[in-house]
Amino acid sequence: MSTSAMTGSPPLTEPAQDPPPPRSIPSGRRTWRQALRRDWQLYSLAVLPILFFLVFRYLPMIGNVIAFRRFQPGGSILGEDWVGLRYVDMFLSGPAFWQVFRNTLWMGLLTLLFCFPVPIILALLLNEVRRTALKRFVQSVSYLPHFLSIVIVAGITMQMLASDGPVNHVLSAFGHDPIRFIQEPEWFRTIYVGSEVWQTAGWGTILYLAALSTIDDDLYEAARIDGANRWQQTWHVTLPGIRPTMMTLLILNIGTFMAVGFEKIMLLYNPLTYPTADVISTYLYRTGIESNSFSYAAAIGLFEAVIGLVLITSANQMSRKTVGTSLW
Questions:
Q1: Do 67 and 295 meet the contact criterion of CB atoms below 8 Å apart?
Q2: What is the predicted pLDDT for the residue at 19?
Q3: Is the pLDDT of residue 3 over 60?
Q4: 3-state class (DSSP) for residue 70
Q5: Is residue 146 within 8 Å of residue 200, measured between CB atoms?
Q6: What residues contact residue 64 under an 8 Å CB cut-off, 6+ apart?
Q7: Structure-derived torsion over alpha carbons of residues 155, 149, 192, 170, reported in degrees to the nearest 10
Q8: Is the pLDDT assigned to residue 54 strictly greater than 50?
């Protein structure tokens, strides 16, 4: 017998082999062709939205060239003669400019002043409701008007405020003479903003409630330990938590500042309320469609779009510098 066997030592084994080298990971990102080949089903879902924006948003922008050219029906679709800024100067120096520009500013300011904070306030109030059934009922009732057509909303508004409508019936019951709300220019802005708040407040509340659900409960617990009451918790925890959502929606609202609800104004206003109801978009419609002054209308629309671009860019820069939140 060998010595190793006698001493009970373990048998000799083969030397351990080195582990296989790790597989090399290709450097760099995947090319767009590889990504398209791998996830083509997902990318195919974006085809129809892209075509929609190309056909109905970007291709019509080519027609803005007639703002600088004289367009004649039956002639070239891009206009006949180059006239430069003639139509823009006509609009800026025309008698209707200051009226429609002032009305647009008033409508935009009032809409922003009332329609922007109301969803925030409603969301904060609903966030404090502990009864789930009551909370769901208020949510359903508040955002139901969003799903109504603007035509239906305008029809309800006109029927409610008609000379023989329910509102005037209530006023008559208190001994007040009927008010012609729809025909009185001084009432138009109140009617428009009130109907806009009623229609949009509930839908905006959904966005803020979603943002409120992302706030960590530990922050509220820490605030309570520090002795903060409900108002202090709202001011120092809740509002900072939804600030990115607030700033994003504020920037978007400012971007549409000059394009105040064209459809609703068109349905609610009449020649008697032009002094306070006629805005740039409605004046553009009457000039371009009803009077067939397409080049003049294109110049007005381009003027409105440039102001909107300046407003949304300025609001985005201010938001980035002040609170660190921006769209881009």
A1: yes
A2: 54
A3: no
A4: strand
A5: yes
A6: 298, 301, 302
A7: 40
A8: yes
